[in-house]
């Protein structure tokens, strides 16, 4: 039986990945500071522990494991990573985890390691025009991410690639672009735009208003969780290392995105654009490289994915149920 270890298995993407790997017949070990919040983990073994501690990492990563997924990070949405208030923790905590994991992966002769980097590594100056952002993989350098979160991801990409160069670690790196779907943070301050907008729209009274950070003309693209898992498992099982973008090319402004969700919710609400952390002006995945090398592209349209996502948030939100 093939074995997989998922670090960050109590988080949004990690908990879905555990389910996917179990369905594929893997024996799966998960680790996180916490259990998943919205459903029971399907992992065969789950370690609640702090991966900043190398003894915990040594206990979690099994010898010769077939697939190791490193998703654990101190992260959140714009309200968490773009305000500057959590910079030291974000950099220290996530870097410490990656320093431990890269070293132990070599010690334990892991067969393949997947690392989740982020679109936040791309230089700010290539993302000033909301209509024409540049996020092709080769444009990452000269580097100038707009957040410390992005700098830590870039450092850790280089850390893993150094372990590949010097110790033969079989590394695969993806730069995720805004992954969304059921069972992610939606109301605890770590939620990202898709969940935050769904919650605001679900909570608003009919003909009421919602607040949106920034002028709403900033653009993004969003990828549904099932597509993210398809690309992730395809990459770790390939002979490529990346980094590759894993995202959608369906770019939309945040105000238009809110209107799409209102359509799904069958509500007409006013949009109040207010001052708030908003990140770069424009960002969209560029999938040319991953399409060419791995023959992958997303299946879900934004509308199809958001219908599933909105329904989940609306049922979480008790106010909507009464
Ligand atoms: P998440 O916050 O839901 O999951 C991360 C998990 O890591 C959490 O459950 C958290 O408890 C755990 N963790 C943090 N510090 C830890 C520690 N010291 N020891 C053990 N566990 C610890 O986030 P997610 O959305 O599932 O993202 C997974 C990965 O993908 C992260 O590395 C994130 O940076 C990256 N990523 C996600 C997105 C996205 O849109 N969701 C975009 C780009 C990159």
Your description of this structure?
- With 322 residues, the chain is α/β, with parallel strands linked by helices.
- It has 2 domains: 198 residues, Rossmann fold, CATH 3.40.50.720; 93 residues, UDP-galactose 4-epimerase, domain 1, CATH 3.90.25.
- The chain is 39% helix and 16% strand.
- It has 11 helices and 13 strands.
- The strands form 4 sheets. Strands 3-2-1-4-5-6-11 form a 7-stranded parallel beta sheet, with helices on both faces. It has a two-stranded parallel ribbon with strand order 7-10.
- Strand 1, helix 1 and strand 2 form a beta-alpha-beta unit.
- Helix 4 packs parallel to helix 5 and helix 8 crosses helix 10.
- The longest helix is centred in the first third of the chain and has 21 residues.
- The radius of gyration is 19 Å and the shape is globular.
- The mean pLDDT is 95.
Q: Short description, anyone?
A:
The chain is built from 11 helices and 13 strands. It has 322 residues and is of the alpha/beta class.
Instruction: Please state the average pLDDT score.
Output: 95
Say which molecules are bound, naming each kind only once.
nicotinamide-adenine-dinucleotide
CATH domain class of the largest domain? Alpha Beta
Q: Which geometry do the CA atoms define?
A: globular
Strand composition percent: 15-25%
Largest sheet: 7 strands, parallel
N-to-C series of helices and strands: EHEEHEHHEHEEHEEEHEEHEHHH
Brief descriptors of the model:
322 residues; alpha/beta; Rossmann fold; UDP-galactose 4-epimerase, domain 1; 2 domains; seven-stranded parallel β-sheet; 39% helix; 16% strand; globular; binds nicotinamide-adenine-dinucleotide
């Amino acid at each position: 039986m093939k074995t997989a270890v998922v670090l960050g298995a109590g988080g949004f993407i990690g908990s879905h990945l555990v389910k996917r790997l179990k369905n594929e017949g893997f024996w799966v070990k998960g680790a996180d500071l916490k259990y998943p919040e919205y459903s029971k983990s399907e992992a065969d073994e789950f370690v609640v522990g702090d991966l900043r501690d190398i003894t915990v990492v040594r206990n979690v990563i099994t010898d010769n494991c077939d697939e190791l997924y490193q998703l654990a990070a101190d992260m959140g949405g714009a309200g968490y990573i773009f305000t500057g208030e959590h910079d030291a923790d974000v950099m220290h905590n996530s870097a410490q985890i990656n320093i431990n994991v890269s070293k132990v992966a070599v010690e334990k002769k892991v067969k393949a390691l997947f690392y989740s980097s982020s679109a936040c590594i791309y230089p700010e100056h290539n993302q000033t025009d909301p209509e024409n952002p540049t996020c092709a993989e080769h444009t990452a350098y000269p580097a100038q991410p707009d957040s410390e979160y992005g700098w830590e991801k870039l450092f850790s990409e280089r850390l893993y690639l150094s372990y590949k160069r010097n110790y033969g670690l079989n590394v695969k790196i993806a730069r995720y672009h805004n992954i969304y779907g059921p069972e992610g943070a939606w109301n605890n301050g770590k939620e990202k735009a898709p969940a935050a907008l769904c919650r605001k729209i679900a909570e608003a009274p009919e003909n009421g208003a919602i607040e949106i950070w920034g002028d709403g003309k900033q653009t993004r693209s969003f990828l549904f969780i099932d597509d993210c898992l398809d690309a992730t498992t395809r990459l770790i099982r390939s002979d490529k290392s990346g980094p590759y973008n894993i995202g959608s090319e369906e770019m939309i402004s945040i105000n238009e995105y809110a209107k799409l969700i209102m359509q799904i919710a069958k509500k007409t609400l006013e949009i109040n654009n207010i001052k708030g952390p908003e990140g770069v002006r424009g960002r969209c995945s560029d999938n040319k490289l991953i399409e060419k090398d791995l023959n992958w592209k997303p299946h879900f349209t934004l509308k199809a994915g958001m219908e599933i996502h909105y329904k989940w948030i609306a049922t979480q939100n008790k106010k909507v149920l009464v």
